Amino acid sequence: MERDKVGGTCLHRGCIPSKAMLHAAELVDGIAEARERWGVKATLESVDWPALVATRDDIVSRNHKGVEGQLSHAGVQVVRGSAQLTGPRNVRVTSGGTFTARRGVVLATGSRPRTLPGLPPDGNRVVTSDDALFAAGLPTSVLVLGGGAIGVEYASFHRSMGAEVTLVEAADRLLPLEDLDVSRHLARGLKRRGIDVQVGARLMEATVLDDGVRAQVRTSRGEIRTVEVARLLVAVGRAPVTDGLGLAAAGLTTDERGFVAPADWSRLETSVPGIHVVGDLLPPPSPGLAHASFAEGMLVAETLAGLPSPPLDYAAVPRVTYSSPQTASVGLTEAGARERDHDVMINTMPLTAVAKGMVHGQGGVVKVVAARGGPVLGVHLVGPNVSEMIAESQLIVGWDAEPSDVARHIHAHPTLSEAVGETFLTLAGRGLHQQQS
Ligand SMILES: Cc1cc2nc3c(=O)[nH]c(=O)nc-3n(C[C@H](O)[C@H](O)[C@H](O)COP(=O)(O)OP(=O)(O)OC[C@H]3O[C@@H](n4cnc5c(N)ncnc54)[C@H](O)[C@@H]3O)c2cc1C
Ligand SMILES: NC(=O)c1ccc[n+]([C@@H]2O[C@H](COP(=O)([O-])OP(=O)(O)OC[C@H]3O[C@@H](n4cnc5c(N)ncnc54)[C@H](O)[C@@H]3O)[C@@H](O)[C@H]2O)c1
């Protein structure tokens, strides 16, 4: 049952359109790099926003058709409309029709942007990530409120497109759930690109004007700054969608944050037998990421079909931010490992320590957290292309490999991944360019 379009947030308003836009942003950044570093006499004429949107939407639309085709091919009946539980096995759909589930019900209603009291989005001057996709044009200046993945990606995108960008995060660092060094390197990279990064900061007041927003921001030092911007993007998190879902009729409640918590995480089954829950509707440790949601969906589908399904290992789910610089990580942060009383070994290496890192010239870092005499606990990357580089590290962490297991494998030269390989060589006591500390 789907009231909008199959594919959900990720395909229509999230991962895919935002990554398409960030790809265009990389191309724009490449023009400046070509001119400034490589003697290529190129200048940016302009960005044709409707053309960018057309390419983005074509990618979304082709994926949408693909999902619809796959569902049809698999014999899935898609019922259009808002679904409401009327009992543990009964669902009514607004478009008409009632349904009784023989095997079970899967709740997958996802999430929507959180907004702030007194700051209602108007789709034009105060916007959410949904509105930002469908805005009529690109703003000349933006205040992004929230330095999580959405805030960081949109701040990065708008800066590439030439806007003046202020990024305001209430916590004392960007991506507060990531390793401290990831937050530091990311903030440094964004500042180098001219983004005004304000962490430990608060939006005190926002006045909507005819042509933008006047905002008062209290910085971490207690100064009050007035910023006038064409657009204020609210990216302070997402809230689970359960309104009108009829949870009570099925004997279910939400937790205090609005999530539907499973009673049995191994089957993602709620306290009502036969009702399962997946995706953004789940509380942590489910990470609110599309790839984790896909895996949760597979687990429930296989469970309901009576097929074997390997348990989910949330600790080995990679986390990627597609800004410039990118961040990618898997496993425990250094602080998280210490909290769990691990005797940790840390090694960090700048990406520019390898030749390919110098070619890219964008800085970046590899940080590995390992248990002394034991497995690798976490890998944290910042820099160009790290979204594609994290795959080997997820296997390293997921398979409980030790640094010496990784160190025996030869990395291709010259690649950015060599920096990952060298970080492990040093941890295994066979450092080439680094001494083991
Ligand atoms: C801007 C942005 C960028 C993102 N980028 C990434 C990324 O790069 N990588 C990543 O891993 N994650 C990313 N995410 C997160 C990702 O989109 C979510 O984790 C994922 O979409 C969750 O999937 P879901 O199926 O739980 O929910 P959703 O994708 O939200 O789908 C829920 C579906 O349920 C439908 N629905 C809701 N209630 C009802 C009802 N009562 N009846 C019928 N239908 C209903 C909705 O219409 C919707 O289609 C991003 C999110 C945003 C907003
Ligand atoms: N690349 C990706 O994987 C990707 C991209 C976008 C979104 N997502 C997912 O979508 C979800 C939503 O992302 P998000 O970035 O909106 O949420 P988030 O919860 O990850 O980050 C929100 C940030 O806003 C800050 N914040 C909250 N209130 C604030 C306030 N009043 N002023 C200033 N800062 C404030 C929080 O401290 C936090 O750092 C997350 O689960 C995220 O992982 C993932």
Structure description:
The chain has 437 residues and is an alpha/beta fold. The chain is built from twelve helices and 20 strands. Strands 6-13-7-8-9 form a five-stranded parallel β-sheet. The protein has a five-stranded antiparallel β-sheet with strand order 16-17-20-19-18, with helices on both faces. A three-stranded antiparallel β-sheet has the order 1-2-3, with no helix packed on it. Helix 2 (15-38) crosses helix 3 (49-73) and helix 2 (15-38) crosses helix 5 (149-160). It binds flavin-adenine dinucleotide and nicotinamide-adenine-dinucleotide (NAD). The site of nicotinamide-adenine-dinucleotide has 24 residues, from helix 5, strand 8 and strand 16. Flavin-adenine dinucleotide binds at residues 1-4, 8-10, 13-15, 18-19, 82-83, 108-111, 129, 150, 241, 245, 279-281, 288-291, 293. Keywords: Disulfide bond, FAD, Flavoprotein, NAD, Oxidoreductase, Redox-active center.
The stretches of 5 or more residues where confidence is low (pLDDT under 50) are none
Number of helices: 12
Largest sheet: 5 strands, parallel
> What would you report as the Rg, rounded to the nearest angstrom?
23 Å
Share of helix, binned? 25-40%
Categorize the overall geometry: globular
